[in-house]
Amino acid sequence: MAARGMSVSTSTNWVTSDRETLVFVRDLARTYGSGPGAVQALASVSFDIAPAEFITILGPSGCGKTTLLNIIAGFDTASEGFAAMGDAKIVGPSSRLGVVFQDSSALFSWFTVRGNIAFGPRAAGRPSAEIAARVNAVLDLVGLTEFADKYPLQLSGGMRQLVAIARVLVMDAELLLMDEPFAALDAIARQRMQERLVEIWTRTKPAILFITHSVDEALYLGDRVIVMTGRPGRIREILDINLARPRDLAAPAFNDLRAKALSLLRSTKEVEP
Amino acid sequence: MTTGIPWAAAARRMATPAIVLIIWQASVGAFRFGSGFIPMPSEAVQSLAIWIFGGATGDRYSGTWVASVEASFGRVISGFIVASLMGILIGMLIGRSRVLSDLIDPLVQALRPIPVSAWVPFSLVFFGIGPGAAIFLVALGAFFPVVLNTVSGARQVSVLHLRSSRMLGAGALRSVLLVVIPSASPSILVGLRLAMGLSWVLLIVAEMVAVKSGLGYELWNAYYYSRMDVIVAAMLTIGVLGFLSDRVIVMISNYVLRWQSPEKG
């Protein structure tokens, strides 16, 4: 099951680092189309994701954030470079790479909350007693036990995204790829969901790659914030956020980081390819 | 819409049919037009009662209603089930595979405009006079709304659902059964409802020409015996059965699609 969509390459010379690395992203580029009409969405993006690390990617709309996520998720193919999990290049979707989409309509609206969460374990052919136990444990973890028999359309937007998180957590995904999952929520619900996500992550410790265009969201959530600039998308700078959790959005240190992130995003000087 | 107490609304809804019946009864009673063959509603109801419950010796229709209904109903259901299974299967193949769409869809589109009644001679050659011909005609006609709606539902499956399914480790068959078919189910059920309505139309046509039993056969036969009262009773029977089978499909739809309702489920 874990090997689904992964190919073990004969050469694994990217595994050089001493520290433990879960995912390698190396010189990733993506160009759509060819000839004079070609559009480069992403150019030479490289970074590592450590196990249990929470990385946020911060960038303006159209900076290739979603393209980057789709390549790491195995939905899209890189034009140059690669993404690899350990010594295996990512060539297709896998339940080790759990994706939480921006649009909560990605849930299976015809299954209940329980049915949505059980989908992955069922596809993996787990025994039904084990599925029930795992689903119940995850329901408890995300706090949706009392909504287990509701259908997605009967839930609020925030609860739907919790189900979307739960259905990949139940697979013990090592990396959660989250594409602006809270973008459709109002400010209060959004803040509560950020707090819940940090709680869930603290208890289960998958690595998370979280895309957002909100500076506060990126700084509140991430161990590291990858700031990207647009067209083609490339990494502007990677910020280490050494603030204890839960973070105070009004603390002076937070304000300093906010100012820095904003100035990085505002800087118009774009490096020529 | 107008508002009011429930019985007033109910009375309004029944008023027009009641007026039509009264005019029909009174004018036929007064003038006996149509060379005396046009029955009054009261006579048709009386004939229906005899047809259902029997008790009139010498009336060839006395007590034969249940047998006719059983024969017709069995053919409608058989044809409908064949059409549904074939329609959903072929619709899924056309809707989800580019290659199969190129191979099968032109044939479906070429056959679709041919009225099913034009297939009567062929059905008689292949199946002879008998229930097989009626089931074939019902299945053929009901197939098209099912296949067209299944194709449209299958083509509209969200890429997010397909990606979710792959990401969670489902293979091709499981994705079709657990994602594509449920996602297309609102559209498929619209096709099934249209197919059920069409099935009754086709059944009556088929039984008039290709079978020697059933409601359509009795209706057409009654014309030769100048029994317009039986014809009206048969029309009434077919109308009620068509209505009830539509309600059953709607009830099944509402149950299957209960996830679409944002209310508590």
Q: Short description, anyone?
A:
With 273 residues, chain A is of the alpha/beta class. Chain A has helices at 65-73, 113-123, 128-142, 157-169, 187-204, 215-221, 252-266, and strands at 6-8, 23-32, 39-49, 54-58, 80-85, 88-90, 97-100, 175-179, 207-212, 224-229, 234-240. Chain B has a single domain, classed as MetI-like (MetI-like fold), CATH 1.10.3720.10.
Write structural notes for this entry.
- The complex is a heterodimer of chains A (273) and B (265).
- Helices cover 32% and strands 24% of the residues of chain A.
- Chain A has helices at residues 65-73, 113-123, 128-142, 157-169, 187-204, 215-221, 252-266, and strands at 6-8, 23-32, 39-49, 54-58, 80-85, 88-90, 97-100, 175-179, 207-212, 224-229, 234-240.
- In chain A, the strands form 2 sheets. Chain A has a 6-stranded mixed beta sheet, sandwiched between helices. In chain A, strands 1-6-5-2-3 form a 5-stranded antiparallel beta sheet, covered by helices on one side.
- The radius of gyration of chain A is 19 Å and the shape is globular.
- The N and C termini of chain A lie far apart (40 Å).
- The model of chain A is unreliable at 1-5 (pLDDT under 50).
- Chain B is an all-alpha fold and 265 residues long.
- Chain B has one domain (40-55, 62-256): MetI-like (MetI-like fold, Orthogonal Bundle).
- Chain B starts with 5 loop residues before the first helix and ends in a 9-residue tail after the last helix.
- The model of chain B has no long low-confidence stretch (mean pLDDT 92).
- Classes of the chains: A alpha/beta (273), B mainly alpha (265).
- Chains A and B meet through strand 7 and helix 2 of A and helix 7 and helix 8 of B.
